[in-house]
Amino acid sequence: MSGYVLLPRLFTATEVERLRDAVEQVHATVVSAAEAGETSVTVWPDGHRLETIDGTTIHWEPDAPGKAVRSLSPVSGMSPVIDALWTDQRLTAPMASVLNSLPTAPSRPLAAADVGPFVAKLNFKRAGVGSEFAWHQDFPYWYCCAGDAAYQIATAIVMLDDNAVENGAMTLVPGSHLAGPAPRDPREPTGLLVDPRSVDEAAAVTIEAPAGSVLMFPGLMVHRSAPNRTATDRRSLLFCFQPAGRPELSALTYNAERLADLT
Ligand SMILES: O=C(O)CCC(=O)C(=O)O
Prior knowledge:
By secondary structure, the chain is α+β, with helices and mostly antiparallel strands.
């Protein structure tokens, strides 16, 4: 079982245009608030700079000349156009199937109305400066926040631009989620990334798809994405779903000591 679902052109060109406007509006609001106000800054062990303002965190591109945003998280409650997707049946119905098909599926099968939010984030791979995401599973980070509930979280990536190899389309290792938490790279300072020596790169697939397409996969899927070397942006909205009623990521605290459970 590959574990991922690709839904080509799930959203129309008009909807994509509306979503792009919404995300650029959110981006502009957050960046100008950060420039005008007092932020709380965290520097991760890998040197990446995270700046929190008004309940959202800006993850800056580590090596871009000038300032460029790599991601914003969370982005719920910042745009009605974005928030509407949490209950859009085009996402919730296939997401219920993804969660129901996990080896750690909930004991009672979920219907579309039974899936709820964990976190929504916005990833920008800006033209020419959007950087690589190295091999990882989303799971260890979520586990440090949510414990075993992290086994029942999956992501829907809404592609706001065409995704191609050249602009850093997502690369997944189909079926890798079935092996559970992957070995992590002991040479890497955050302790969160997958050890690349353990990845079956020959089995990896890169998901090229037009804007408006949606890619869904569970938190244990091993994945990466390459830098965007093209002259145009590659933006995505990520909705991470879980069984409804559980605490959202924003209500939880990151506890790195939990990583020791996963070795
Ligand atoms: O947007 C991307 O290219 C990478 C997304 C990803 O892997 C993540 O946010 O965990």
